[in-house]
Amino acid sequence: MGRQSEALAAAYLRSQGYEILETNYRGRRGEIDIVARYQQIIIFVEVKGRRSLNYGLPEESITPEKRRRLSQTALEWLKRNKGLEALVRFDVVTIVWEDHGPRINHIQNAFQVSENGS
Rounded distance, CA 28 to CA 74, Å? Predict the structure, then answer.
């Protein structure tokens, strides 16, 4: 279900005018599901898919530790791609696979990262 959710999220972002730069980027500290560009902003996207809401909202599973790893991995990506001067944002795309089809929620600027990466 993870890859299917990521593919749907990428298609959704493209339909909204985002350019997908990379998917499933793996760094030393973790993985970023989607790296995209919208206008002049580099967006690091975490995708969370669920079959139901029995265990809470998908975005609630993004812990402070997960945010820290995402920010460290994003910094690796920026260094590797000479993007340290870029404007950066962290988004979350959640997908709940309901009986009548997937429900997509795009949370822009879902969290902030401090100077020390936390």
Answer: 11
Taken in order of first residue, the domains within the chain and their CATH numbers are 2-107 (3.40.1350.10)
Closest CA to 74 of 41, 100, 107: 41
* Distance, CA of 73 to CA of 41 (rounded, Å): 17
What is this structure's pTM?
Answer: 0.90
3-state helix, strand, coil in the chain (%, to 5): 30, 40, 30
Backbone angles phi, psi at 45, to 5 degrees: -115, 125
Number of H helices, E strands in the chain: 2, 5
Q: What is the mean pLDDT of residues 82-90?
A: 90
